[in-house]
Design a protein that fits this description.
Layout lengths: L26 E2 L1 H8 L3 H8 L7 E3 L2 E5 H10 L4
Antiparallel strand pairs: 1-3, 2-3
Helix pairs in contact: 1-2
């Protein structure tokens, strides 16, 4: 009998790890926001739909400008 090999179950989304602001693309997708904030993609969708979040709709797709996102994050910092 041939032993069965265990299949590796790949997560639906493998996050990118950004180590600096320079690595972040000029326009982010929702999954990029999830990766940067280390939250789920579902949580990121809730976040980008919230009032005050700097999201653009381009041909029905959500995009977030890098500089606007960084400004938004800095506005959320504890003082």
């Amino acid at each position: 009998m041939k032993p069965t090999s265990a299949k590796r179950i790949r997560p639906a989304h493998e996050p990118k790890l950004f180590t600096s602001f320079e690595e972040i693309p000029d326009y982010l997708m929702v999954k990029d926001v999830a990766d940067i904030l280390r939250i789920s993609v579902a949580s990121a969708y809730h976040l980008v739909k919230a009032d005050g979040f700097p999201v653009l709709l381009l041909n029905g797709q959500m995009r977030i400008e890098k500089e606007a996102f960084i400004s938004w994050m800095r506005g959320k910092e504890r003082k």
